Amino acid sequence: MWARPGRSSDATEGRGRTSASRPIALKQRAAALVAAAVLLTACSSGTTDGTAEVVSPDPSTPRPTAVVTPTADPETARLQALAQLAEQKAAVLPTASPSKSTIAADAPLLGGDISWPQCPKGMGIPERRTLGLPMPLPEAQYVVVGLTNGPGFTQNPCLASQVDWIRQHHLLASAYAVVSQPDAAAVKEHGTRGPFDGATDLGALANTGYQQALANVATMRAAGLTSPIVWMDVEHVPDFEWSSDVEANGAVVQGAARGYADAGYDIGVYSTPALWRDVVGDLALKAPEWRAAGQTSQAEALERCGDDWQIQGGDAVLGQWVEGQRDLDVTCPGVTEIGQWFQQY
User: Fold this and answer.
1) Region Disordered: start and end of each range (predicted)?
2) Phi/psi zone of residue 132: left (φ > 0), alpha (ψ -120 to 50 degrees), beta?
3) Upper half-sphere CA count for residue 6 (Cβ side, 13 Å)
4) pTM for the whole thing?
C-alpha cells in the first residue's frame, strides 16, 4: 500500500480476442496517476487527503460479475491448481498452523497493515526498494500482511521475518496482494496455463492473473503465513501501470480471484470506488471490501464503511487510514466474526 509515484510501464503486446493477436497497449494516463495520488495511500501508489468525490454506480443498472468465462471444469481447475502448488512444495498449509481467533469484536478493533515498505532499507526490486518504515502500533490487535514487492510475480523480501514478528506478538493475521497488469513476457509464459481459454486475449490475461494468485499462495505458504482470506489490492501501480482497457484489466483481476478460490481461499477487495472503476470499470465481484481513506483519520475510515463508499458490491469489513508513516486499520461496525477474516498467532 505504500509506494513512490512513478512512470507508467512501457507498452506491451497481448494476445488477440480470437486466435489472431491484437496489441494491448499499456498507455501512460496522466489523469489516472493524478487520481491515484489524490485518492489513495495504499499498497502500491500515492497519497490521499480523503476529500475526493465518491463515484457511485447507478443502482438500477446491473453490474457485470465477470468479463470472461472459464472453459475448464471447476473441479478439474481446482485439482490442477493444487498440483501446481505441489510442484512448488506449497500444496498444503504450513504444519504449525495458528489457532482460530478467540477475540470477540463487540466494537471496532484497531489493526495495521505491512508489506515491503516495512522491510529493512535497501531490499527488493529496483522500482520498490524497501523503506524501513515502522511496524504496527503496540495496541494493534491484527495485521494484514502484503505478499508482493509491489506488482504481481514479485515477493515481499522480508515476509518470513514479518510472520515471525506476528507470531512473537501473538497477533491476528491475514494476507493481501497487489494485482497488476502483466507484461507481454508474463502473458506469453502464463497465458495458456489456467481455467480460461488462452487462445483469446481476455482468456490469456485471466490465466496470467490466475498465475499471479498461485505465485502469491506459494509465497505465503513458504513463509508460514496462514490466512482465511487474501485481499486483492486493485489500484494504480506506478512503473507497472494498468492498460487503458478496463475489460482487459478486469480479466486479470477476475483470473486472480479465481486462482485464490481454487487454492482454497476466500477473497476480498482493497480499493476505493473511483480507483476500482478507473482500473476495471463496473466489474462487480461482490467480494468483501477493505476500504481506503488515505491520510485522514479513524473517524473517516469508519465513515468509509458506509454504503456510499461501496466499491464493487461487497460488504464493508475494514477501513484504512494513514497516520504517522503507518497504515492503520479498523474493523467496520457490525463485524464480529473475527475468525472469518483472521488467524490467531
Assistant:
1) 1-23, 47-66
2) left
3) 20
4) 0.82
- Grid cell 438500477 is found at 60
Q: Give the three-state DSSP class for 323.
A: strand
Per-residue cell: 311? 466499491
DSSP conformation class of 108:
-
Of 241, 319, 253, which is closest to residue 5 (Cα–Cα)? 241
Distance CA 36, CA 52 (A): 11
* H or E segment and range at residue 271: strand 266-271
For residue 240 the three cell numbers come to 507497472
pLDDT tier, 92 (very low <50, low <70, confident <90, very high otherwise): low
| Bridge partners, 329 (sequence order) | 111, 320
Please say whether the beta carbons of 210 and 196 come within 8 A: yes
Please measure the distance between the N-terminal and C-terminal CA atoms of the chain and give it in whole angstroms. 23
Q: How buried is 176 (Cβ within 10 angstroms: 0-12 exposed, 13-18 middle, 19+ buried)?
A: buried
Q: Which helix (H) or strand (E) holds 164?
A: helix 159-169
**CA–CA distance, 195 with 81 (Å, rounded to integer):** 9
CATH topology of domain 30-50+68-344: TIM Barrel (3.20.20)
Give the chain's length. 345
Identify any residues that bridge with 293 across adjacent strands, giving them in sequence order: none
Q: How many angstroms separate the Cα of 141 from the Cα of each of 96, 111, 307, 335?
A: 21, 5, 26, 14
Q: Which three cell numbers stand for residue 57?
A: 454506480
Q: Where are the alpha helices (DSSP H) in 40-118?
A: 74-87
The position carrying cell 491515484 is 36
Domain ranges of the chain: 30-50+68-344
The pLDDT tens digits of the residues spanning 29-86 come to 444 443 443 344 444 443 334 444 454 555 557 888 999 999 888 888 888 887 887 7
